[in-house]
Amino acid sequence: MVEHRPWLTVVTHAILILGCLIIAFPIYITFVASTHTLDEITSSFPIFPGSHLLENYIRALSVGPRDLGATVGTMMLNSLIMALGISFGKIFISLLAAFAIVYFKFRFRMFFFWLIFITLMLPVEVRILPTYKVAADLNLLDSYSGLIFPLIASATATFLFRQFFMTVPDELCEAHRVDGGGPIRFFFDILLPMSRTSIAALFVILFIYGWNQYLWPLLITTDESYYTLLIGIQRMLAVGDQQAEWNIIMASAMLAMIPPVLVVIFMQKQFVKGMTETEK
Amino acid sequence: MEKRVVFKNKVLPYLLLAPQIIITLVFFIWPATQAIYQSVLQEDAFGLSRIFVGLDNFKYIFSDRIYYNSIYVTAIFSFSVAAISMSVALMLAVMADRAIRGATTYKTLIIWPYAVAPVVSAVLWYFLFNPTVGMIAFFLKSIGVDWNYALNGTQAMLLVIISAAWREISYNFLFFLAGLQAIPKSFIEAAAIDGASPAKRFWTISFPLLSPTVFFLIVMNIVYAFFDTFGVIHAITEGGPNEATNIMVYKVYHDGFLGLDLGGSAAQSVILMVVVISLTVIQFRYIERKVHY
Predict the structure, then answer these.
(1) How many distinct structural domains can be found in chain A?
(2) Which residue of A43, A47, B39, B70 pairs with B266 in a disulfide if CB–CB is 3.0 to 4.6 A?
C-alpha cells in the first residue's frame, strides 16, 4: 500500500483479535465446562480448565449420559457412517450423472438435467412428512440406509462436476476415441484422475453437511442405537425438570465439533475452494 | 454449452443417470407431489378417512393468527440473523483484507466455526445464557436484567438469533474476503494517491464492487435462517415461549409431526416450497445477471 498509517494497523489488528476472541469464547467455555464435575459447573462459573477432563470424556464415550441408552462412542460412529455415506454417495452418483449429461447425447437429456436441478428447490424441510412416509414404507426407519440414501441426491455436486467436465479439453476425448477407447475407460483413466481436486473440495463440504444433519435423523431414528451424536445431544438437553448433565453434554458437544472442525482446518484450501465453487 | 465430441451409446447414459434419478424421484419429487396433494385433503390422524377440501387448508392457514405470528417471527429472525452476521463478517473481512501480516492466521481463526452444526452452536449459547448455570445469564442478572428466556419471548428470540448468527459469521466472512481480494489493488491505490481516506475508499470503491457478493449473501443467509436453523429452535426453545420463536419450518414439523394435522402441515410445506423456489429463482436470475458493474 502506498501510505503508512501505523495507528490504523494497530486498530485493524485489535478489531481482528477481538473478533477472534468473541468467536472462540463459547467454544472455550464449552471446553472448560467439559473438564469440570457437574457440581463445579452448577455451583460456580469456572473460567479455567479443571481436572476432570479424562473422566468426563471417558464416561461420555464409554458409558454415555444418564438415561439415554447409547454411548457417545456409538453415536459418533453413527454420525461418521452417515457423514461418510452421504459424502461418498453424493460424489459417486453425481460424477456418473454429470458424465452422462456432458459426454452423451440422448433423448430427454435436458429433462433429466432439469429434474436434477429441481432438487435444489426441495430441501427436506419443505417435505418433512411425505418423505418420512416414503422412508417408513420402504422400511428405512432406524437404519443406516435410511440415514444416508434420502440425502444423497445432489444438484450442486452434479453441477460442479458438469462445469468441471465442460472445461476438460475435447482433444483428450478425441484422442482417446482415436485410440479406440470406450466411454468407461475414458471415465476411469482420464476424467476421474483429472477430477481429483474437485472431488476433494466437494468431500470437505459434504462431510460437514452430512455430519451436521439434524432434522432428518431426528425424524427417522427412534432406536437409540441409530442416534447420531447431534440427536443424542438434544436428547441429553431435553431432560425436563431434572438437572441436565452439563459436564457430559459439553464433552459431547466438543466431540461433535472436533471432526468437522479438524477437516476444515487441515483441508482449508479444499474447503475454501469447495465453498466458493459449489455455492456460486 | 455442449461438447463437440460425445460418445454414442444407447443404454449407458441412462444407466449412469439411474442412481441419481431414482433417488430424486423417490425421495424428492414423489414426496413433494404428495405434499401438494395432501395440502388439498382433510385427513384424520389415523389415515382412516380423507376428503378433498380444495383450498380450505390454505384458507384456514391464512385466517390463523398463529400462522401470521409465525411469518412475523420468521421475518424478524431471518432479518436479524442476516444483518448481524453479515455486518460483523464484513467488518472482519475488511480488516483481514487490510492486515497483510497475519491475514491467513486470522482467516483460519474466523472460518472454522462454519464446521460447527447449528444445533451445537445452539447448545453452546444455551449453556452461556442458561439461567441456572450460564455465565452470561449470571452477569445479566447481576446488572439488573431479569433474564429468563423460558418466560420472556424477546429474550428467547435474542438467544436463537445469537446462536444462529454466530456460526454464520464464518460463512459470510469467507465470501466477503474472497470478494474483497478480487478487487484490483490498483483501484484502491489510485484513490489513496488522490488522498481518499480509508473509510472513503471503502464506501466509494470496495463496497459498490462488493454488491454482487452482498446480494448473494443476503439470499444465502435468508435460506439459512429459514431452513437450516431448525435445530437451533428445536434444541433451545421448541418455538416457545408462547409462539415467540415459532419459525415457519418449526411450525411445519410441530403441526405435522406432533400435532398430526396432516393437511395443515402439508399446506404450510407448499407455502415454504414457494418460498424456496422464489429464492432460488432470484439467486439464479437476478443475482447472476443484474448486479454487475
Answers:
(1) 1
(2) B39
**pLDDT tens per residue, range A189-225:** 888 998 888 898 889 889 999 999 998 999 888 888 8
Segment 218-247 of chain B within 8 Å of chain A by CB: 220, 226-227, 230-231, 234-235
Which chain B residues touch A13 with a CB distance below 8 Å? 99, 102
Q: Cell match 427417522: residue?
A: A220
Cβ of residue A53 closer than 8 Å to a chain B Cβ: no
What pLDDT, in 10s, does the model give residues B92-146?
998 888 866 777 888 888 888 888 999 999 999 998 888 888 888 888 888 888 8
**A69 in contact with chain B, both atoms CB, cutoff 8 A:** no
Quote the ipTM score. Answer: 0.87
CB contact under 8 A, A250 and B127: yes
Size of interface A-B (CB pairs under 8 A): 287
Residue B110: CB partners within 8 Å, gap ≥ 6? A19, A20, A23, B92, B96, B169, B170, B173
- Print the domain residue range for A200: 69-279
Residue A151 lies in a domain: yes
**Domain coordinates in residue numbering, chain B:** 64-289
Q: What is the DSSP string of A228-262?
A: -HHHHHHHHH--TTSPP-HHHHHHHHHHHHHHHHH
Domain B64-289: which CATH class?
mainly alpha
What pLDDT digit, counting tens, does each position of A226-236 carry? 888 899 888 88
